[in-house]
Amino acid sequence: MRKRVAHIKDIIEKLYSRYNHRRLIKPDPLQFIYQYSNRADMEIVGFLGACLAYGRVQQIQKSLSCLLGYMGDSPFQFVHNFDTDKRKKLGNFKHRFTLGSDISDLLGLLQNVLWEFGSIEKFFIQGYDPSDKNIIHALSKFCDSLLDMYASRHKGHASRGLKYLLASPSGGSACKRLNLFLRWMVRDDDVDTGLWKSIDKAKLIVPIDVHMGRLCRILGFYDQKTISLKAAEKITDCFAEIEPEDPVKYDFALSRIGILKNCTGKIKDICEDCELFDYCLRKEMSY
Predict the structure, then answer these.
(1) Domain span at 267
(2) CA atoms of 124 and 114, how far apart (whole Å)
(3) What whole-number distance in Å separates Cα of residue 70 and Cα of residue 103?
(4) Who contacts 268 (Cβ-Cβ below 8 Å, separation ≥6)?
(5) What share of the chain is helix, strand, coil (3-state, %, to 5)?
(6) Which position has the higher pLDDT, 270 or 110?
(7) What does the DSSP assignment read for 138-195?
(8) Looking at CB atoms within 10 Å, which of 141, 147, 157, 203 has the fewest?
(9) Three-state secondary structure call for residue 94
(10) According to the model, what pLDDT value does residue 211 have?
(11) Residue 232, H or E segment
(12) What is the DSSP annotation of 8-59?
């Protein structure tokens, strides 16, 4: 087992060295954070970027460019001073099935957070316990508290669109988008911002989507086709055997294989140049 872990670490360290560079961030929505230099703006942009990180990459970029265009030079100030006129301004916004009204509802909640706590981080850590195994409990409290805040002001009701943006682990969601946001905020290297200083990166959960799930099956981290919270925990535990202090370290590098190399899990001529080629070949031969 130790030999296998050492071999996998050697492989994915090579991937990390190859892909984990800021110049390779595009077209990841993380790119929008680095369009700002003010910490408060970067945090807001990161949260909105993660919330809308679903669907085709090109559409995500288009939607975020549109949304940030509405928000002007300072997204933080836009949220801090959010009002009826700004809600109307977002009326025509749409990203797949997320409507302008859903974004406005979310910004109204973030405005309350900023007024009371000053930042999303300070609100998030109200539910964070460093003794917890991982970040799941804190993320559940974060999402559930925001939804409860909204429901208390709207006769106990939160829209389906808002619930999707704030999908909580307490409902069984793997929370790919919000775990992505936490990676951006907590980790600190050439790619991730390290804006948040109050959370241990060892507590993070790997953001699992279809592509990351496929790569983790190829690596033998799990064998299910469904993406669930339990699968995300199991995959994170496997990465923690390799890098216990930073289990999410390799997420960006692995995700680049799909985006930059158009990886589909099917062997192609270009695959021979990939560090994971032998694993993919073995996986294909086992079918």
Answers:
(1) 2-286
(2) 11
(3) 12
(4) none
(5) 65, 0, 35
(6) 110
(7) HHHHHHHHHHHHHHHTTTT---HHHHHHT--GGGT---HHHHHHHHHHH-BSSSSB--
(8) 157
(9) strand
(10) 81
(11) helix 229-242
(12) HHHHHHHHHHHH--GGG-TTSGGGGGGG--SHHHHHHHHHHHHHT--S-HHH
Instruction: Answer for the pair 142, 123: CB distance below 8 angstroms, yes or no.
Output: yes
Provide the domain count of the chain: 1
End-to-end CA distance of the chain: 23
pLDDT one-digit tens code per residue, 164-184: 999 999 888 889 999 999 999
Amino acid at 72: G
Instruction: Give the dihedral sign, CA 90/95/99/101.
Output: negative
Distance (Å) of CA 230 to CA 15, 17, 182, 237, 238: 26, 29, 18, 10, 12
pLDDT of residue 154: 83
Contact in structure between 199 and 179 (CB atoms under 8 Å): no
CB atoms within 10 A of CB 234: 17
